[in-house]
Write a structure and sequence with these properties.
- The protein is an all-alpha fold and about 170 residues long.
- The chain has ten helices and no strands.
- It has two domains: about 1-60, no CATH class; about 60-130.
Length: about 170
Amino acid sequence: MPRVKARKLQIKEDTTQKAIRDYRGGKFPSIRKAAIHYKVDFTTLSRRLRGTKPAQEVHPESALLTPVQEEAIVQLCLRFDSWGLPLKLAYVRGLAYHMQDPEKWRQPGKHWISRFLNRHPILACKIASRIDRQRAQADDPKVLAEFFQLVNTPPKKCGTTLINFL
């Protein structure tokens, strides 16, 4: 599942930061020992100690949207989901296109929506999946049994028969 990628990247980044903190704090005599203990790549750890930034922080100006704009889209998606209205992927792409600064308007790339969902894993099950969830809940044998019991019982309050309904 590619949607878990953002969470794994965050865990990896947190582990790298712990290794850097412990190495600088004197807990480990060498970078290699810190890398082995925290199961972090030695090269990554040594580059970070020399001042190299993580890939997510290197080129923020090349991002399509600012973090504030992305958060606005996330909140909108969550609000629509709470109303029971799933947003389609094309609609979210359109939002991204129209929320950009007018001087740098450009079309979201082919993989923008999947990367957006990777950055915001909370949306992975919120966008255009509400209907699928409702279908799965309707497949419950208890719900089906109650429905057929209602259908098979003729209405008695009005004095009508089942033939009047058919």
